[in-house]
Write a structure and sequence with these properties.
The complex is a heterodimer of chains A (162) and B (406). Chain A is mainly alpha-helical and 162 residues long. Chain A has one domain: 3-Layer(aba) Sandwich (Rossmann fold), CATH 3.40.50. Helices cover 38% and strands 8% of the residues of chain A. Chain A contains six helices and three strands; from the N terminus they run H-H-H-E-H-E-H-E-H. A three-stranded parallel beta sheet of chain A has the order 1-2-3. In chain A, helix 2 runs antiparallel to helix 6 and helix 3 packs across helix 6. The longest helix of chain A is centred in the last third of the chain and has 18 residues. Chain A is elongated and about 65 Å long. Chain A starts with a helix and ends in a 6-residue tail after the last helix. With 406 residues, chain B is an alpha+beta fold. In chain B, helix 4 runs antiparallel to helix 11 and helix 6 packs antiparallel against helix 11. Classes of the chains: A mainly alpha (162), B alpha+beta (406). Chains A and B meet through helix 3 and helix 4 of A and helix 1, helix 4, helix 5 and helix 17 of B. The structure holds iron/sulfur cluster. The site of iron/sulfur cluster has 11 residues of chain A, from helix 3 and helix 5.
Chain lengths: 162, 406
């Protein structure tokens, strides 16, 4: 069936769905991450954006330099005590709705560094939606986390955080 | 009036050369072009940079302190993670230091594998540098090309050590495991293809008018300044000083390889780019020699007090079980003393200073970070340049913030 025919036969049709589903579908497929690299994991985050694994297939290639244009904060690496307030500021600057992926062992729990310098898990300062294990996680792991997040966003509907 | 994101403007009231006031502007620590979490306090006179003060410590991980809580063989894992673009080279510095204190010599095959891993790492580190610097200066496609080859290298890492980035492959006493036949095959193919890929990068950048306009004459660092400021690696060689630890203080058998030290007398960002390109070509040359001459034999020292016995022995020998138990509960002890060993990483002199009090844990471990030294040259390179050139200058220093802050 050609496009014209399709438009003729189906163009006048009406779909019934909920607004929440449409909004969730739209949001889930256009998650823009903040370009916020911290440590080793950030290198794998860059690798996720390159041709080999290509995060663009999931609509998230637009890494925004400004937190005000982004929906997703990927905490990619270890967060020191000195960096913690900065991270929180970046998170606060992001407009709602927003989500957080904690990438790697350090961001999730402090990883191999159980000491005075590191925050033992970013969930102490920002609400985390998806944790990724690994040190560093493979690019495929990050994609998997993104897909999990997308499912969640789609299910959340129009008001993600109540 | 609203100011752009992440920028606070403070008027200090001083007058600049152009009659305007000197502005002090904060740059970072979250900024897309700082290669991590570097923060700079920049004094601006119009568009001119009159002063830069780096503020570091945003990635301070306590790595050196952490090492004191780990046994000697556990420490290897942490060394991977300070200069995270060259993990095997960090391993090597640490392993050589521990071996020197213990008076251990590794077998020739281990040395050759160490050289192979070091050169692969140098390539991947320069590739990340070139990809990200290209991206920042507008050559967006560089990132895609460079990360393509970097991924090949990471696949090889995975084949030989089971892990992509933080391999912990080089350990005191040898290496983690012998190279698999598939690894040698992959390496052979890679060595064959890489020169063509380097030509491809050069096609994209060397004569690219935008790249040249943004790097030639930018970030000058005279040889004297480079030496005084302690610059190292491509930063030093980009100023025409032929100092490469692989030549001047050879380790792991580098004296047996035929390669040249890349230098450039341009003393600017473009010169340092040429140095890195040539270093990549030399690295491929070294890889070819190492692969062709790869000696046979064991890859670990034959010392039950330092490395665990092979799995088969555990079933037949009580002594092997005891050694195994001792190694994995207490670890080995290193004779009291201190030693400094430096190796050449993609960024320069990557040193490791260890102090042992004769127990199974280090007393003190200090890493001499190449990025930290190179960061000191930042102000000298950036003075009296335009604000936009700062991006090229930060890029050319190739600092890894994990290395600076540790
Ligand atoms: S989890 Fe591992 S790779 Fe990631 S930042 Fe921490 S040490 Fe680096």
């Amino acid at each position: 069936m050609g496009l014209e025919e399709l438009a003729e036969s189906l163009g006048q049709n009406v779909l019934t769905t909920t607004l929440g589903k449409v909004v969730g579908w739209g949001r889930g497929n256009s998650v823009w991450p903040a370009q916020f690299g911290l440590a080793c994991c950030a290198i794998e985050m860059i690798a996720t954006a390159t041709a080999g694994v290509d995060i663009a297939r999931f609509g998230s290639e637009a890494m925004r330099a400004s937190p005000r244009q982004s929906d997703l904060l990927i905490v990619s690496g270890r967060v020191s005590q000195k960096m913690a307030p900065v991270l929180r500021t970046v998170f606060d600057q992001m407009p709602e709705p927003k989500w957080v992926i904690s990438m790697g062992a350090c961001a999730s729990t402090g990883g191999v560094f159980n000491n005075y310098a590191l925050l033992q898990g970013v969930d102490k300062i920002v609400p985390v939606d998806v944790y990724i294990p690994g040190c560093p996680p493979r690019p495929e792991d990050l994609l998997n986390a993104l897909m999990i997040l997308q499912e969640r966003i789609k299910a959340q509907g129009i008001q993600p955080r109540q | 009036m609203s100011t752009p994101e992440g920028v606070t403007i403070v008027k200090t009231g001083e007058k600049g050369h152009f009659g305007g006031e000197i502005l002090t502007v904060n740059f970072g620590p979250h900024h897309p072009s700082t290669h991590g979490v570097l923060r700079l306090i920049v004094d601006l006179d119009g568009e001119m940079i009159r002063g830069i003060k780096p503020v570091i410590g945003y990635l301070h991980t306590g790595i050196e302190k952490q090492m004191e809580a780990l046994r000697w063989q556990q420490g290897v894992v942490v060394t991977d993670r300070h200069d995270y673009l060259s993990p095997p080279i960090n391993n090597l510095a640490y392993a050589l230091a521990v071996e020197r204190l213990m008076g251990v010599e590794v077998p020739p095959r281990a040395d050759a594998l160490r050289v192979i891993m070091s050169e692969l790492t140098r390539l991947s580190s320069h590739l990340v540098w070139m990809g990200t610097s290209g991206l920042e200066l507008g050559a967006m496609s560089m990132l895609m090309y460079c990360f393509r080859e970097r991924d090949t290298i990471l696949d090889m890492n995975e084949e030989i050590s089971g892990f992509r980035m933080h391999t912990s492959y080089i350990r005191p006493g040898g290496v983690f495991a012998d190279a698999t036949p598939r690894f040698l095959e992959m390496l052979d193919k890679f060595i064959g293809e890489m020169p063509g890929h380097i030509d491809e990068y050069e096609d994209l950048l060397t004569m690219n008018p935008i790249w040249r306009a943004r790097t030639i004459g930018i970030g000058r660092l005279s040889p004297e300044d480079a030496k005084v400021l302690g610059a190292t690696g491509p930063m030093l060689r980009g100023s025409g000083v032929a100092w490469d630890l692989r030549k001047t203080m050879p380790y792991s058998g580098y004296e047996n390889y035929d390669f040249e030290v890349a230098t450039s007398n341009d003393c600017d960002c473009y010169g340092r780019y040429l140095v890195r390109i040539r270093e990549m070509r030399e690295a491929v040359k070294i890889l070819r020699q190492a692969l062709d001459r790869l000696p046979d034999g064991p890859v670990n020292v034959d010392d039950r007090k330092m490395l665990p016995p092979p799995r088969e022995e555990l079933e037949t020998s009580m002594e092997a079980v005891i050694h195994h138990f001792k190694l994995f509960t207490e670890g080995y002890s290193v004779p009291a003393g201190d030693v400094y060993v430096a190796v050449e990483s993609g960024r320069g002199e990557n040193g490791c200073y260890i102090v042992s009090d004769g127990t199974h844990k280090p007393r003190r471990v200090k890493f001499r970070a190449a990025s930290f030294a190179n960061l000191q040259a930042l102000e000298r390179m950036a003075l009296n340049h335009m604000v936009a050139d700062m991006i090229a200058i930060i890029g050319t220093a190739d600092t890894v913030l994990g290395d600076v802050d540790r």
